[in-house]
Amino acid sequence: MADEDMRMLLHGTLDYFEWRKPVEEPRASRIRDHYGQILIEFLIYALRKDIAWKDMFTFDTFREFRKDTGLKNTSRALISLSGYLYEKGRIDQPLEIPTYQVQLPDIYEHYLCYLEHAKAASPIHLRSSRRVPWPLCTCILKITQSRSLP
Description:
- The chain has 150 residues and is mainly α.
- It folds into two domains: 3-87; 106-148.
- It is built from seven helices and no strands.
- It has helices at residues 3-20, 26-49, 59-69, 75-87, 106-117, 123-131, 134-148.
- α1 (3-20) packs antiparallel against α2 and α5 (106-117) runs antiparallel to α6.
- The longest helix is centred in the first third of the chain and has 24 residues, at 26-49.
- The protein is elongated, with a radius of gyration of 21 Å.
- The model has no long low-confidence stretch (mean pLDDT 82).
Protein backbone atom coordinates (compact mmCIF):
# COMPACT_ATOMS: atom_id res chain seq x y z
CA MET A 1 0.00 0.00 0.00
CA ALA A 2 1.26 3.45 -0.78
CA ASP A 3 2.26 5.66 2.12
CA GLU A 4 -0.46 8.07 1.02
CA ASP A 5 -3.17 5.41 1.48
CA MET A 6 -1.99 4.67 5.00
CA ARG A 7 -1.76 8.38 5.80
CA MET A 8 -5.34 8.85 4.56
CA LEU A 9 -6.57 6.02 6.79
CA LEU A 10 -4.71 7.35 9.81
CA HIS A 11 -5.94 10.93 9.33
CA GLY A 12 -9.48 9.75 8.62
CA THR A 13 -9.49 7.67 11.80
CA LEU A 14 -8.11 10.52 13.92
CA ASP A 15 -10.65 12.96 12.46
CA TYR A 16 -13.39 10.46 13.18
CA PHE A 17 -12.37 10.25 16.85
CA GLU A 18 -12.27 14.03 17.15
CA TRP A 19 -15.79 14.11 15.73
CA ARG A 20 -17.00 11.48 18.26
CA LYS A 21 -15.21 13.10 21.22
CA PRO A 22 -17.85 15.61 22.46
CA VAL A 23 -20.11 12.95 24.03
CA GLU A 24 -18.67 12.19 27.46
CA GLU A 25 -21.13 9.84 29.11
CA PRO A 26 -19.83 6.49 30.47
CA ARG A 27 -21.51 4.34 27.80
CA ALA A 28 -20.27 6.55 24.95
CA SER A 29 -16.79 6.47 26.42
CA ARG A 30 -16.81 2.65 26.54
CA ILE A 31 -18.04 2.46 22.95
CA ARG A 32 -15.36 4.92 21.82
CA ASP A 33 -12.68 2.85 23.59
CA HIS A 34 -13.98 -0.36 22.00
CA TYR A 35 -14.11 1.28 18.56
CA GLY A 36 -10.59 2.63 19.16
CA GLN A 37 -9.24 -0.86 19.79
CA ILE A 38 -10.93 -2.18 16.65
CA LEU A 39 -9.80 0.71 14.46
CA ILE A 40 -6.19 0.48 15.66
CA GLU A 41 -6.28 -3.22 14.78
CA PHE A 42 -7.73 -2.26 11.39
CA LEU A 43 -4.90 0.21 10.78
CA ILE A 44 -2.35 -2.49 11.59
CA TYR A 45 -4.20 -5.01 9.44
CA ALA A 46 -4.38 -2.60 6.46
CA LEU A 47 -0.68 -1.86 6.73
CA ARG A 48 0.32 -5.51 7.12
CA LYS A 49 -1.89 -6.72 4.24
CA ASP A 50 -0.95 -3.77 2.01
CA ILE A 51 -4.58 -2.80 1.33
CA ALA A 52 -5.16 0.04 -1.11
CA TRP A 53 -7.44 2.93 -0.09
CA LYS A 54 -10.08 1.99 -2.67
CA ASP A 55 -10.32 -1.53 -1.16
CA MET A 56 -10.32 -0.66 2.54
CA PHE A 57 -14.05 -0.37 3.09
CA THR A 58 -15.31 -3.32 1.09
CA PHE A 59 -17.20 -6.31 2.43
CA ASP A 60 -14.36 -8.66 1.40
CA THR A 61 -11.81 -6.63 3.37
CA PHE A 62 -14.15 -6.53 6.37
CA ARG A 63 -14.67 -10.29 6.25
CA GLU A 64 -10.93 -11.00 6.02
CA PHE A 65 -10.16 -8.49 8.80
CA ARG A 66 -12.72 -10.09 11.10
CA LYS A 67 -11.32 -13.56 10.37
CA ASP A 68 -7.71 -12.41 10.84
CA THR A 69 -8.14 -10.53 14.12
CA GLY A 70 -10.74 -12.59 15.93
CA LEU A 71 -12.15 -9.42 17.53
CA LYS A 72 -15.85 -9.43 18.35
CA ASN A 73 -18.38 -6.89 17.06
CA THR A 74 -16.09 -5.21 14.56
CA SER A 75 -18.80 -4.30 12.07
CA ARG A 76 -20.24 -1.26 13.86
CA ALA A 77 -16.87 0.43 14.29
CA LEU A 78 -15.94 -0.01 10.63
CA ILE A 79 -19.41 0.92 9.38
CA SER A 80 -19.35 4.04 11.55
CA LEU A 81 -15.88 5.09 10.35
CA SER A 82 -16.75 4.43 6.72
CA GLY A 83 -20.01 6.38 7.08
CA TYR A 84 -18.08 9.32 8.51
CA LEU A 85 -15.52 9.18 5.69
CA TYR A 86 -18.30 8.92 3.11
CA GLU A 87 -20.09 11.99 4.54
CA LYS A 88 -16.82 13.92 4.33
CA GLY A 89 -16.34 12.87 0.70
CA ARG A 90 -13.20 10.84 1.36
CA ILE A 91 -14.57 7.52 0.09
CA ASP A 92 -17.02 6.77 -2.70
CA GLN A 93 -19.24 4.39 -0.76
CA PRO A 94 -19.58 3.42 2.92
CA LEU A 95 -19.10 -0.17 4.05
CA GLU A 96 -22.27 -2.19 3.65
CA ILE A 97 -22.61 -5.57 5.27
CA PRO A 98 -25.36 -7.75 3.80
CA THR A 99 -27.84 -9.26 6.19
CA TYR A 100 -28.64 -12.89 5.70
CA GLN A 101 -32.14 -14.07 6.23
CA VAL A 102 -32.66 -17.62 7.36
CA GLN A 103 -35.37 -19.50 5.47
CA LEU A 104 -37.62 -21.45 7.83
CA PRO A 105 -40.22 -24.14 7.08
CA ASP A 106 -43.49 -22.79 5.67
CA ILE A 107 -45.42 -22.96 8.94
CA TYR A 108 -42.89 -20.65 10.62
CA GLU A 109 -42.79 -18.31 7.62
CA HIS A 110 -46.60 -18.04 7.75
CA TYR A 111 -46.44 -17.27 11.46
CA LEU A 112 -43.84 -14.52 10.86
CA CYS A 113 -46.04 -13.11 8.10
CA TYR A 114 -48.95 -13.06 10.56
CA LEU A 115 -46.79 -11.28 13.15
CA GLU A 116 -45.67 -8.71 10.61
CA HIS A 117 -49.08 -7.88 9.15
CA ALA A 118 -51.68 -8.63 11.83
CA LYS A 119 -49.67 -7.72 14.92
CA ALA A 120 -47.44 -5.03 13.31
CA ALA A 121 -44.32 -6.56 14.84
CA SER A 122 -41.14 -4.51 14.51
CA PRO A 123 -38.33 -5.64 12.18
CA ILE A 124 -36.12 -6.29 15.22
CA HIS A 125 -38.78 -8.55 16.77
CA LEU A 126 -39.20 -10.40 13.47
CA ARG A 127 -35.44 -10.98 13.13
CA SER A 128 -35.17 -12.38 16.63
CA SER A 129 -38.31 -14.48 16.11
CA ARG A 130 -36.69 -15.90 12.98
CA ARG A 131 -33.44 -16.78 14.75
CA VAL A 132 -35.02 -18.62 17.67
CA PRO A 133 -36.44 -21.68 15.84
CA TRP A 134 -33.60 -21.92 13.30
CA PRO A 135 -31.32 -24.29 15.30
CA LEU A 136 -34.26 -26.57 16.03
CA CYS A 137 -35.37 -26.62 12.38
CA THR A 138 -31.88 -27.45 11.11
CA CYS A 139 -31.54 -30.24 13.66
CA ILE A 140 -34.90 -31.77 12.67
CA LEU A 141 -34.00 -31.46 8.98
CA LYS A 142 -30.69 -33.32 9.53
CA ILE A 143 -32.44 -36.09 11.46
CA THR A 144 -35.13 -36.57 8.80
CA GLN A 145 -32.54 -36.59 6.01
CA SER A 146 -30.39 -39.16 7.79
CA ARG A 147 -33.42 -41.44 8.32
CA SER A 148 -34.49 -41.23 4.70
CA LEU A 149 -31.11 -42.45 3.42
CA PRO A 150 -31.15 -46.13 2.26
